[in-house]
Amino acid sequence: MLVALKPTQETIDIVAALKGRWHGSYAMCICPAHADRTPSLSVRQGERGILVHCFAGCRSEDVLREIGRTKPILNSSAPSYQPERTAPNVRRIWDQATEIRGTLGEVYLRSRRLPIDLPDLRFHPRCPFGRKPKTTFRPAILVGVRTGHRMTAIQRIRLTNDGTWHDGKFMLGKPERGAWAPQFEGDVLAIAEGMEDAASYTQIKGVPCWAALGNKRLALINVPDQVGTLYIAADNDGPGRYAAMAAVGSHNIPERQLLRDPPPRPFHDWAEAQSHIR
Asked: Which among 13, 176, 180, 259 is most buried, taking Cβ atoms within 10 Å?
């Protein structure tokens, strides 16, 4: 089970020295590895010490080396720690939705050659989009975004009227470090951009795969510490390659093997590759 860990006093003292500000279970700090004017370093508590990610692109090992040279401010005040609850709209819309079978959601998944019993997917026949008074209602697949067992957001895949395609994907809630995260056993995991890519990767490779739900989020999601081999199944384009490199830097911890695994050319993503397999 994955949980957001309460920061230790040592982590609190380091964050204070980095002029950090806490946001629930993580802090945004001044990065000591580059000339940082605005906080660009995420610091959170891991099982074996602090976990860092610099959004400006600094390597985690460089950041940790500089933190080791930083004098902590001892006995700094602890932040108020209270896990955030699921936003009411997220829970309400999720509870209104139904299983995929027998809906336009099934039509969509079958058109993508994907199983219809994937976990944490639901169908909403009249999902709201936009703010009042301009709210529209469309059929949508809901993708649950979880950190551990706590749902923090949903991605709404807005379907066309016949269900064979979509015309946009929209996040509702605060995804934080969450992902579409099917349960798995063992120490091998892959991460991909979209739910369709992750499910396709698992079908093709036989490796459990999570979806970050956005290329920039590949570096942000919470990968369990027990994962010893992590495949980065990013898209086969410029943004995908950049996101894969950022993910390698973010998820690189001792005793973990990281492998970039884009789809074979000429396919753009793993969902497209899956659709061409006979």
From this structure: 180
Predicted structure pTM score: 0.70
Calculate the CA 137 to chain-centre distance. Answer: 26
**Does residue 263 have a pLDDT over 70?**
yes
| Main-chain dihedrals φ then ψ at residue 55, nearest 5 degrees | -75, -10
The pLDDT of residue 84 is above 50: no
User: Reduced to 3 states, what is the DSSP secondary structure of residue 203?
Assistant: helix
Question: So where are the chain's domains?
Answer: 9-68, 88-173, 188-275
Closest CA to 155 of 231, 210, 117: 210
Peptide bond into 224 cis (omega under 30): no
In this structure, the number of other CB atoms found within 10 A of the CB of residue 51 comes to: 23
Q: How confident is the model at residue 106 (pLDDT cuts 50, 70, 90)?
A: very high
Q: Which pLDDT value is given to residue 4?
A: 61
What pLDDT is recorded for position 66?
95
CATH number for the region 188-275 comes to: 3.40.1360.10
Identity of the amino acid at 210: W
With contact defined as beta carbons under 8 Å apart, do 252 and 229 qualify?
no
Contact present, 260 and 230 (Cβ < 8 Å): no
